[in-house]
Amino acid sequence: MMPVVIAMLRFIGIDAIGQSTFGSALLIAVAWGTSVGGAGTPLGGAHNLLTVQFLQDRVLHHEFLFTTWVVRLLPITLLAVVASVSFTVMSLRSDQERFEGTRAYFAQELRALGPMSMPERLGLGFFAAATLLAFTRELYAR
Description:
Layout lengths: L1 H10 L9 H18 L7 H15 L5 H26 L10 H12 L4 H18 L1 H4 L2
Helix pairs in contact: 1-2, 2-4
């Protein structure tokens, strides 16, 4: 995500990203977002997978489902999101009111992608199937 943010900032004319409070806030938001968001799912990082394995082997002695993790950590994750967004907004006020060109930048990048290829469609289909299977495992696991 960082390269996308940096490219977008440069596109709208912010070259000295470290000197821009908006640029700094955006980069911090991406870094914190990946960290906070990663806690919300077992696939958010290797430490989460190790925690699931530990819980299964040493504490619960049965499978710890993907949905169990998501449901139990959702309130904590939402609180962390609210706290990090609030801190970012309050402490790093933007030095600009409007950011002309951001809509055009994303429209241009989307056009440059072109239509989805067959491998991309297959990848999307497999991802959707894996997500559906992960969230419905309780229905077929036992």
